[in-house]
Amino acid sequence: MTDAARAVADAGAEAYPRIVAALIRVTGDWTLAEDCAQEALAAALERWPHQGVPDNPGGWLMTTARNRAVDVLRRATVERRKLRDLALLTDPAPARPEGDVVDDRLRLIFTCCHPALALEARVALTLRTVAGVPTADIARAFLVTESTMTRRLTRAKARIAAAGVPYRVPTGPALVERLPGVLGVLYLLFTRGYDADGEPAFAAEAIRLARLLHTLLPDQPEAAGLLALFLLHHSRRATRRDPSGDLLTLDQQDRTRWDRAAIAEGVALLDRAGDGPYALQARIAAAHATAPTAAETDWPAIARCYDALALVHPTPVVRLNRAVAHGYAYGPAAGLALLAEAREGGALDGYPPAMAAEAELTARRGDPVRAAALFRATADAVRSDPERRALLRRAAELSP
Amino acid sequence: MKYMMLVCTDTQPDRNPDAAPDIEKWVAERDANGQRLTGSRFAPPSAATTVRVRDGELLLSDGPFAETKEVIVGFDLLECADLDEAIEVARAHPMAYAGRIELRPLVED
Predict the structure, then answer these.
(1) If you measure CA to CA, which chain B residue comes closest to A167?
(2) Is the Cβ–Cβ distance between A327 and A336 less than 8 Å?
């Protein structure tokens, strides 16, 4: 890549979402905003190699995109609303402080994450419009073709205009009501990036957006909690797989390669994170991340967090993890008792992590024969070959 | 924006419908602040007449266009800045508790 091309790529990654957000605010026209931002990037690719990279690449792109929008609106049929937009765009002194620019993106996040849109549309639209992720990459993450994803994004944008979804950050009680939805979208985004087959860039993008959200809403504890959770999970990204690509459990990972800066930042955030569900998950992640060795993990602290989490979020998986934590903190009998409780209702029937947990707790309680049988049953239930091999190995160790 | 607020029944109303606000109060307040332009209750579906023209011939049938358990029992025409304002108006209506409410923007050129 030439220097100029690299400059376009760098400036574009940073400026594209800002330009789109600013032009949507002024024109209310999503397609126009995106088209003009794209055309500014194309113009930069064409001109910068000859004319040199401008001193302020982001500013150059913003000006070019805005001029392009003025051209388009000027050529469009003259109607009152368009004329008003034009007046706003051509205002000779648009003295907007930097804070306002950031605010544009927050507005965009809340608009893309509006609960009147379907959840998948919210995630896709946030990726495309707020984060500037190419449609092709989003399509890959959702396992659909690019043209399908293009249609979905177009539909979502049309719905925003037709239904009258406001381009605004809600205030007061409405903010408290809407924020969980926004945090939920970012969480889903992060998970898409962190899952075994996910797009790693999405995790980084989710962190960037969570950081932006926390900067702009510093008094919202769950925004701090979510950012802390992301950072603490992400600190382990380099150590989660062995050279053959298989996932490694916490006790198998090389802790010296965990990202200490991310861990420190995540732990520091916990002071402002309160006790919401994301904060509790972050505290659990922090207990793992700050343990010098797996054996020195503060399991009683983790068990307490799961107790609190199970009160607000009594999902089967949370109750399973709570049983495992209690098993480490207070002995296998305590863990097995809670596991039996979590199993009531049958939601965990045939769920391999629950079967593996029972096998592990049974082994530690001193019943190797039964534990080996449980490990073999778990091996039959899992789908991935490496997991099956690991479980069968464990069964073989227990039954000599 | 103008929203047609369709007030509908639902076979699964809120388990605590007593928490619903008073309808007289709702109408008086929305009329006073200009959010409600007009509105009315509907006579029951049995009073409906469905009109069609097919091959130039007028076809009338009694009853609504579809037999459903949930029906539209009334409407209010709202004038709101955006969807969020319309949602706030709808959530304050007692039938949001006892039934459901559909907000449909009017296409305005």
Answers:
(1) B82
(2) yes
